[in-house]
Write a structure and sequence with these properties.
This protein is an alpha/beta fold.
Length: about 350
């Protein structure tokens, strides 16, 4: 429906729910289920040229955790507060196989007024540029370059580039932008305190939009065994991360203005979370863990919640973008309320 439609640069999505890249989009079956459920776009499982990144997929492990860091059953019915702790890898086949798959899925998506988006994670910039050209030549309509994959520092050397320097991001984006004309989206890390500068650098390098932000690296000891859970550091995300992403959306909007499209990820579990992200300045929202751990019904449920909210408020999805962000005040602008704090002090 038109009230759900949003614009990301020159691209119009039929709704702001994007299924983010993950293991469930390595095969056509998952992509088709997401498209049939009504998502505006699916981001295909990421690829690069590194054999180590492919091999890493065989060493993946996943843990759903409750708020006490206890492991939950993987039964596709997680509680809302569940967090995902995991290792991951990239698409396990050849780049040519991936490209054929991605192009075929984007043609299928077009029949449903949706998109399947190619996702590249750099290992080397030269190969990134080469692969970006091939993505465009294959007819794929949108390219995402993920320079913020959380596993970068823990993966084998040369497998995944994790970029945290704003100036380097501008250089990377500029080289890709110089090679292709299709819409270019850049996904950024959350492992930085300089995120607004990274957003600006991506924009200045020629990115049509950015996504904030990749999950965090974490370490969790297992109380029963005394060993590291999963044996390693691993990426960690959950609903607790939503306010952190919202904070950086607002701060980035303050730096670059209201007209540059940003997308949100890390923390959305339903349609109400999509709304929270959009009120903070996101034009669309990538849902990854929610679909991966609870199944494709999450898509339909979230879109219904979003539509019901818009009906109740007599708004469109576009009306939501930045509504709360543009009303934020500083501490100094708050009203004085002397001794108010005493009501919060325990006896």
């Amino acid at each position: 429906m038109k009230k759900l439609a949003v614009k990301i640069g020159k691209v119009t999505l039929k709704n702001p729910l994007i299924c983010g890249s993950g293991e469930h989009f390595i095969d056509p079956s998952g992509v088709k289920k997401a498209l049939n459920a009504g998502t505006g776009a699916v981001i295909i499982k990421s690829v690069n040229e590194s054999e180590a990144a492919k091999e890493q997929l065989a060493k993946t492990d996943y843990a759903l955790l409750d708020s006490n860091f206890n492991r939950l059953d993987w039964d596709f019915n997680p509680p809302r507060d569940a967090s995902l702790f995991n290792r991951s890898g990239l698409y396990p086949g050849s780049f040519d196989d991936w490209l054929e798959f991605a192009a075929k899925m984007d043609r299928l998506a077009a029949e449903k007024d949706a998109y399947c988006i190619a996702s590249l994670i750099p290992a080397s910039i030269e190969k990134l540029v080469e692969y970006a050209k091939k993505v465009e030549e294959a007819g794929i309509r949108i390219l995402e370059v993920n320079v913020g994959a959380p596993h970068g520092d823990e993966a084998a050397k040369g497998a995944i580039l994790l970029e945290k320097e704003a100036s380097h991001i501008k250089t990377i984006v500029s080289k890709v932008r110089g090679a292709v004309n299709i819409p270019l989206w850049i996904k950024l890390t959350g492992q930085s305190q300089n995120i607004p500068a990274m957003v600006k650098s991506a924009r200045d390098g020629g990115a049509d939009a950015v996504t904030l932000m990749g999950r965090y690296m974490a370490f969790i000891p297992d109380l029963e065994t005394g060993k590291p859970m999963l044996g390693t550091h691993a990426a960690f995300g959950g609903p607790w991360a939503l306010p952190l992403t919202c904070h950086w959306l607002v701060k980035s909007r303050e730096k670059i203005g209201t007209n540059y499209p940003m997308m949100a990820t890390n923390g959305a579990r339903d349609g109400h979370d999509i709304i929270r992200f959009m009120l903070s300045g996101a034009s669309a929202v990538q849902m990854t863990t929610a679909v991966f751990t609870a199944g494709y019904d999450v898509i339909d449920k979230s879109l219904r919640q979003l539509e019901e909210y818009l009906d109740k408020k007599n708004m469109t999805a576009t009306d939501l973008i930045g509504l709360a962000a543009d009303q934020v005040k500083t501490y100094a602008e708050q009203e004085n309320n002397e001794n108010y704090w005493r009501g919060f002090v325990p006896d």
